[in-house]
Amino acid sequence: MNIYYARERLRTGSIFDLKLKVAYYARVSTEKAEQQVSIKHQQEYYEEFIRSNQNWTFSGAYIDDGISGIHAEKREEFQNMIRDAKLGRVDMIITKEISRFARNTLDSIQYTRELLSYGVCVWFQNDGINTIDEDSEFRLTIMAGVAQDELRKLSSRIKFGHARSIQNGVVLGNRIYGYHKKDGKLTIVPEEAEMIRIIFRDYASGTMSTPKLEKKLWDMGYRNFKGGKINRDVIRNIIKNPKYKGYFCGGKVKIVDMFTKKQEFLPESKWVIFKDDGSRVPQIIDEETWEKANEYMKKRSEAIKSHRTSFKNGNLFTGKIFCANDGAPYWMKQHYVRGKEDVRWVCSYKIKNGADSCSSHGIRESDLKKVVASLINESSCNIDEVIKEYLNILRKVINNKPDTGIEKERLQNQIDAIKKKKEKILEYNLNGNIPDEEFISRNKDYTKQIIDLEMEISKLVPEDVELQMVEKQLSKITEELKSFKEVKEEDINRQIIDKLFDKIVVSLSADKQTVCKFYLSTGCLKIRDLGGVVLNTCYLTIRKNDTRHFIGELVA
Fold it and tell me: Cα separations (Å) of 490 from 341, 362, 376, 503, 515?
């Protein structure tokens, strides 16, 4: 539907005078019997209402049954309706009221705007709003705000009810392994309870870690509720759950925001927890075994923090080192050997996905600092010659580029030509020479082309300005390098790294040597896109009696 044309028609007529493809949308949030009756009545009413108008064609029904209205993206039929509207299968959607369409203001405005862009209006019958009217969005915003506030009040009442239920010892929450929940009480499921006993017995013995238990349960044929593996995180949560020792436990989580569903995990001091008499939370594990397993988990966690490898986001090279294989940043890996700290930097992709996922080598921080000191010392002696070489290369690259002014004019001419096409298809559509669906599709495509071309123009920088920017930055770097005299490994700090280097890229040469390219902070992306220009190189032996070498390259 052409919204502009339709609005002009409505100045002298009504919505019933327009030839439209009309659908309806209905939703109920529960599967209760009275709600099912309601949805049936809506179906009968809307189909009769649409078909009774001779100018309208019934184009379908979209019904979400037993689904919350908070988030539209989770409603399957609602999304099908948006898709069909985009394809031009619908001109108008009728729905009972705003609260059935969306339960928050943002969704109401977002989706009605989107539908209008496809040439589709929405008629909220009970609210007396049709988005084909030019003042509809103002009224829709007010009414949607009211619907959203009603949802907020409902959410508050539900939270209050949950709190009262917890205080009264009613078991809430999702299903947990080992139990069946009914009427706010738990009963033991024997087969699952046996699995729970295996987990606690083996873990409390100190012979089985959670990864080993994960494998053992799989081999024994135990599966999660979806038929998959019971993973180590689930096993940890099982071990920490007081219900298994016969304790009622509730109020651990608080919903901070009803729309985002953001949760806040409360401290244990705010939980409602007490030993049950067995009528609501029957015991599967004796308290001694439960306490022993949890004490072992606590000690294991502390040991990992204090003695095992740890990864830190802060420190000397954070955010500077990247893997040439996968582009992932390097993370600091810190551990202790015979009481002495050993710091290495390792590809984060390799850390997350295992040793076989990336062929890169880890690098000792001490080796990195040695090569940085060596590059600085060597470059500070001949920095003027190094920078001169770099600028000559840069000028050659810039001179081979199209003139910025000419390129900008060329792109602007393309934009002007597309705008003329947009005006032409609008004229064709108003005269009835092309259908609404074709107009909407072509107009959208032309708009995207214009946006893309405008982005290209915005990225263009005059050649002389670009060169001046680089020269200014290199002048600063030159002064910095000249100020360094006999820099030692221990002198290298974060301030030096930030001043001199944009990034460090780690790769392996054909003969398995580790190569680190230290890119100067020149601010010139164009040169880096060409692979960079090596200005200086130094070599370091990684270890004694090791044939491999560590290569450091100063790159612009």
Answer: 15, 21, 13, 21, 22
Rounded Cα distance, 362 and 323, in Å:
10
CATH for 169-305, among 3.30.420.480, 3.40.50.2300, 3.90.1750.20, 3.40.50.300?
A: 3.90.1750.20
CA distance readout (Å), 241 to 82, 110, 197, 230, 268: 43, 42, 13, 16, 12
Each residue's pLDDT tens digit, 149-187: 665 555 455 444 444 544 554 544 567 888 887 776 788
537, HSE (Cβ side, Cα atoms, 13 Å)? 7
Average pLDDT over residues 434-463: 79
458 has which bridge partners?
none
| pLDDT tier, 147 (very low <50, low <70, confident <90, very high otherwise) | low
CA dihedral 124, 126, 128, 131 (to 10 degrees): 0
CA–CA distance, 249 with 169 (Å, rounded to integer): 9
Between the alpha carbon of residue 158 and those of residues 43, 161, 199, 387, the distances in Å are: 30, 5, 35, 69
- 3-152 CATH: 3.40.50.1390
Please give the C-alpha separations between residue 40 and each of 23, 34, 75, 100, 493, in angstroms, as whole numbers. Answer: 16, 10, 19, 15, 72
**Tokens 């539907």 map to which residue?**
1
Query: Domain map of the chain by residue range?
Result: 3-152, 169-305, 310-360, 401-465
Q: How confident is the model over 24-44, as a mean pLDDT? A: 70
For residue 285, the Cα-to-chain-centroid distance in whole angstroms is 39
| 166: Cβ contacts below 8 Å, ≥ 6 apart | 172, 250, 251, 272
Point out which residues pair with 505 in neighbouring strands: 322, 517
- Tell me if 386 sits within 8 A of 536, measured CB to CB: yes
Cβ atoms of 20 and 119 within 8 Å: the answer is no
Rounded CA separation 49/209 (Å)? 65
pLDDT of 50 higher than 90: yes
Query: What's the whole-number average pLDDT of the chain?
Result: 76
Structure tokens at 541: 């032996």
What tens digit of pLDDT does each residue of 69-116 get?
Answer: 455 566 788 889 999 999 999 999 999 887 778 766 667 788 888 998
- In which order are the strands placed within the sheet that holds 129-130? 56-65, 20-28, 92-95, 121-124, 129-130
Q: What is the pLDDT of residue 180?
A: 82
Is the dihedral angle over the CA atoms 331, 365, 529, 461 positive or is it negative?
positive
Per-residue model confidence as pLDDT tens digits over 296-343: 888 776 654 543 444 444 478 888 899 988 888 999 887 766 667 778
Query: What is the helix (H) or strand (E) element at residue 143, kind and residue range?
Result: helix 136-167
In angstroms, what CA-CA distances link 547 with 460, 512, 553? 48, 10, 19
Residue 96 tokens read as 């009972």
Q: Which of 135, 88, 138 is nearest to 109 (CA)?
A: 138
**Cβ distance 22 to 50 under 8 Å?**
yes
